[in-house]
Amino acid sequence: MSNPLALIGRGATYVALSLAAFVSVFPFFWMVIGSTNTNADLIRGKATPGDALWRNIEVFFTSADLPRVVFNSFFIAGVGTVLTLLVSSLAGYGFEVFRSRTRERVFAVMLLMLSVPFAALMIPLFILMANLKLMNSYQAIILPSVASIFIIFYFRQATKAFPHELRDAARIDGLKEWQIFLFVYMPVMRSTYAAATIIVFMTHWNNYLWPLIVLQTNDMKTLPLVVATLSQGYTPDFAVVMVGSIFATLPTLIIFFLLQRRFVEGMLGAVK
Amino acid sequence: MAQSHLARNERINGWAFVMPALILIGIFMIYPIIWSLWMSFQVGRGMQFSFGGLTNIIRLTQDPIFMRALTNTLIFLAIQVPIMLVLALLFANALNNPNIWGRGFFRTAIFLPCVTSLVAYSVTFKAMFAADGIINQMLMGLHIIGSPIPWLADPFWAKVVVIAAITWRWTGYNMIFYLAAMQNIDRSIYEAARIDGVPAWARFWYLTVPMLKPVILFTAVISTIGTLQLFDEPNLLTQGGPSDSTLTLSMYIYNLSFKFMPSFGYAATVSYVIVILVAILSFLQFLAVRDRRA
To answer: I need a surface site. Which of A231, B49, B93, B245 has the fewest CB within 10 A?
Structure first.
């Protein structure tokens, strides 16, 4: 450490990290400051808190049927997350525990499909939903993302760490396979589920393009759609948009801070 | 007898566990992707289709807006992905050093952007990069620029804002993958190298980077796929403008299908351009990593 070069290196590291941390956090700070100012002050770059917060919240609440919009968002993200975790963890477990050559081939094809971009699916999906008379419905939003190849892969990787002995012991005790999954596997793997919950909930909650295509009436809109609509047009009121952004960010932010340790743990499991 | 019963049981359960997922993937991925391929050879407006052979592919080569969307998407890819991955790797390396004070704080701070919704951060960036907005105020305050930059009104700067926004959102995400992989590397290798007098940059370049190759490949492929289907950020920040300078392929597909008189067949052809690009680039990245290992 007495080496002056190493000392400079350490100093530069701290400067770079501090700068990165500042840049990362600044937009959050700006969101909060912006929500307290008038639109005119916000656009002028006023960096101190103002006193327009209540007015902005009021305008935001009158711009849409907010309780309904928040309900839509939570309903879609909640039901979507539960179904995705259930279907995808079942498959991930199944692929890892019951091996057969056919299923390995199916799995390989599935992994290849991980790289199919959504853009290539959205038009046929749109026509499919129209034919099924599911346009503008919760099902149309939730169903296409329930079988997530990424989450299936994630659970298959995590299942490699699930002890064989537990499964063998449960079989000797006479448990059926679905009971083993439900009463042994799920409780043992709860930190994997916690990490997957964060990822899946965020994906559903933040989804923008597909709901934009499918949800057509105001009573079905989700928070991202409402915030996006407010920000477009010729003279958007950015102070009100900032209030909306805070609303849209808060749930995922809270979940992240509650489950932060689990999150990193789960990611570690996925990469190994 | 007991053996065959067990094998049968295994077979039934094996399919039962994966079947719900496979059925859903069949309906919502395989069926659409095949349909999309069929549709890319159809011409016509709205739901009226007729077989057009190579008409759509010929139209692609003569379509200046498609060419612009393709160029923009490739520019975003070629500039944004390397910048982001290098930054993520450097931050991860710095935070993997146990002698750095406040590692937990820095890690959380740099990861925090990943928690925001794409819509929320895009509109926040739009407000920050307004003509008289905070970014211009700060840059002018620091005397980096003399007069405000027309961020979202200038074709060049609009691209810069989109790149800055995506980099802000995803660097921490990739960093977490690198950090996780670095924590699996045996620290004694670094100790041995340090005792042998290998400087820090060489330890990073000759020890850390080669050992992270699989993870770097993974993040490169994921980021490539993500950038090739970029939609949310440019749609919210610039709506493709000014004069189509930030229009991406996904936005063009959206515009072709849902904004103008729907031209589903041609839009499907454009979407297959993304499929082919993803396939080629993933394959090249795979080759690049394998070659350097040999």
So the answer is: B49
Q: How confident is the model at residue A89 (pLDDT cuts 50, 70, 90)?
A: very high
Helix (H, G, I), strand (E, B) or coil at B189: helix
Q: What is the largest CA-CA distance in chain A?
A: 73
Q: What does the block give as tokens for B117? A: 């919704």
Per-residue confidence (pLDDT) for residue B258, from 0 to 100: 83
DSSP A78-89: HHHHHHHHHHHH
Within 8 A by CB and 6+ apart from A114, the residues are A149, A150, A153
Cβ-Cβ contacts under 8 Å, B103 against chain A: none
pLDDT in tens, B158-213: 999 999 999 999 999 899 888 888 887 888 888 888 888 888 888 888 888 888 88
The domain locations on chain B are 64-293
CATH architecture of the region B64-293 = Orthogonal Bundle (1.10)
- Tell me which residue has tokens 């992989």: B181
Q: How many CB atoms lie within 10 A of CB B281?
A: 20
ipTM (interface pTM): 0.85
Give chain A positions within 8 Å (CB) of B95. 17
Of A34, A120, A242, the CB nearest to B272: A120
For residue range B104-121, what is the model confidence (pLDDT) as tens digits?
A: 889 889 988 988 888 888
Task: Report which residue type is found at B31.
Answer: Y
- Residue ranges covered by each domain of chain A: 65-271
Q: Cα(A184)–Cα(B32) distance, rounded to whole angstroms? A: 37
CA distances from B210 to B174, B185, B241 (A): 17, 11, 41
Query: How does pLDDT run across B98-108, given as a tens digit for each residue?
Result: 788 888 889 88
Across the interface, of A25, A115, A248, the residue whose CB is closest to B119 is: A248
| Side chain identity at residue A51, one-letter code | D
Residue with tokens 């069926």: B31
Q: Do A43 and B35 touch (CB under 8 A)?
A: no
Superfamily of domain A65-271, CATH level 4: MetI-like (1.10.3720.10)
CB contact under 8 A, A24 and B264: no
Cβ–Cβ below 8 Å for B271 and A117: yes
Work out the end-to-end distance of chain B between its first and last CA atoms, rounded to an integer number of angstroms. Answer: 50
| Distance of alpha carbon B158 from alpha carbon B64, whole angstroms | 20
CA distance to A91, B27, B28, B36, per residue, from B24 (Å): 11, 5, 6, 17
